Write a sequence for this structure.
C-alpha cells in the first residue's frame, strides 16, 4: 500500500523490456525454487541496501517486486539478476534467464534448466480506496465509509477488476505451456479466505467479506493461495503482511500474496519475512519495508 505516491523512477527501466545479465543458461537440474512477493516501499523503504540484504539473505530465486521505483536499478545491478519490467511499480527479478514475456510484461517465462520452465506473474493493484479502512471508518484518500460486506466487495471489484481480469487472461494463456505458474502481488485487498465468519468471531476482522480479487484468481485459473494452502487455519495462522510499522490506529491484514499452479510444483514451505517480532518467520534487525514479504519454497518436478 502507498501512503505517499512515489513518482521518482530510473529512466532506463522504462526503456528495458527485460534484461538478462547472465552469459549462459543454467545447466544444472533445478529441483527446488524460492519465490518471493516483496513490496519494497517506494523504491527501497528505509534502506535500499537492507532491501537488497533481505533478497540476498533469503536466497530468493524469483522475486515479484512492488513499488520497485528507483530501487530496481540498484537491486538488479547489485544481485546481477534477469529482469522483466511491467511498470515503475511492478518488476520481476530472477536468478534464472527470462525467455518470454506476456503482452503486459506482468508475466514472464523463466528457464530453470534444460528441461524446466516456469511462468511468473506479478501485480500491484490500486491502493485507493482501501476496503478494510472503509469498513473501520479510517480516513484514507477521501474514500467513503462502508457499513456492509456487499458494498465492500462491490467497491473492491470496481477498483481492481480491470487489472485482475487482464492478468487472468494472460495466466490462462500461459497455462497452455503446462509448466508451473506463480503469481505474486500486493493486492491492496485482503483475501476471502481470511475474512471469514470464524475470523470475525475471533476478532481478527470486523465482518466476513467475500473479497473478490483473490477469489477471482483462484476460481478462474485454479491458482492456489500458497500460504493458506500450507496454513489453512485463518485464526491460528493469520500471516499478516500489513504492516510492521507502528500506528495509533491500524487494520493489520494479509494483503501480499503468493499463488502457485500446476501438477509439476509442490509446496515445501511458506514463510513470512519481516521485522524481529512474533509475526515474522524470517526476521531482520533492520527490516526496511512497510510490508512483510512472503517467501515460498517449492519442489519443482520433472
Amino acid at each position: 500500500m502507498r501512503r505517499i505516491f512515489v513518482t521518482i523512477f530510473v529512466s532506463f527501466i522504462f526503456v528495458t523490456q527485460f534484461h538478462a545479465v547472465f552469459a549462459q543458461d543454467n545447466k544444472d537440474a533445478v529441483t527446488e525454487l524460492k519465490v518471493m512477493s516483496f513490496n519494497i516501499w517506494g523504491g527501497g523503504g528505509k534502506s535500499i541496501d537492507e532491501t537488497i540484504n533481505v533478497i540476498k539473505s533469503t536466497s530468493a530465486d524469483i522475486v515479484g517486486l512492488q513499488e520497485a521505483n528507483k530501487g530496481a536499478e540498484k537491486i538488479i545491478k547489485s544481485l546481477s539478476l534477469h529482469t522483466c519490467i511491467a511498470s515503475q511499480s511492478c518488476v520481476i527479478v530472477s536468478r534464472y534467464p527470462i525467455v518470454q514475456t506476456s503482452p503486459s510484461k506482468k508475466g514472464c517465462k523463466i528457464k530453470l534448466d534444460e528441461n524446466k520452465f516456469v511462468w511468473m506473474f506479478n501485480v500491484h493493484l490500486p491502493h485507493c480506496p482501501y476496503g478494510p479502512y472503509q469498513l473501520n471508518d479510517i480516513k484514507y484518500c477521501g474514500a467513503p465509509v462502508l457499513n456492509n460486506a456487499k458494498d465492500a466487495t462491490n467497491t473492491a471489484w470496481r477498483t481492481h477488476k480491470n487489472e485482475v481480469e487482464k492478468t487472468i487472461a494472460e495466466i490462462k494463456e500461459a497455462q497452455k505451456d503446462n509448466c508451473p505458474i506463480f503469481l505474486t502481488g500486493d493486492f491492496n485487498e485482503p483475501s476471502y479466505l481470511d475474512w471469514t465468519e470464524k475470523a470475525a468471531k475471533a476478532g481478527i476482522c470486523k465482518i466476513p467479506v467475500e473479497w473478490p480479487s483473490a477469489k477471482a484468481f483462484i476460481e478462474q485459473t485454479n491458482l492456489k493461495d500458497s500460504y493458506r494452502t500450507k496454513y489453512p487455519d485463518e485464526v491460528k495462522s493469520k500471516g499478516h503482511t500489513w504492516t510492521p510499522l507502528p500506528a495509533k490506529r491500524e487494520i493489520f491484514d494479509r494483503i501480499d500474496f503468493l499463488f502457485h499452479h500446476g501438477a509439476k510444483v509442490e509446496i515445501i514451505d511458506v514463510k513470512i519475512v519481516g521485522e524481529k517480532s512474533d509475526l515474522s518467520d524470517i526476521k531482520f534487525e533492520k527490516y526496511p519495508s512497510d510490508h512483510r514479504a512472503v517467501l515460498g519454497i517449492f519442489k519443482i518436478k520433472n
The chain has nine helices and 14 strands. The longest strand covers residues 265-275. Confidence is low (pLDDT under 50) at residues 3-25. The chain has one domain: 11-300.
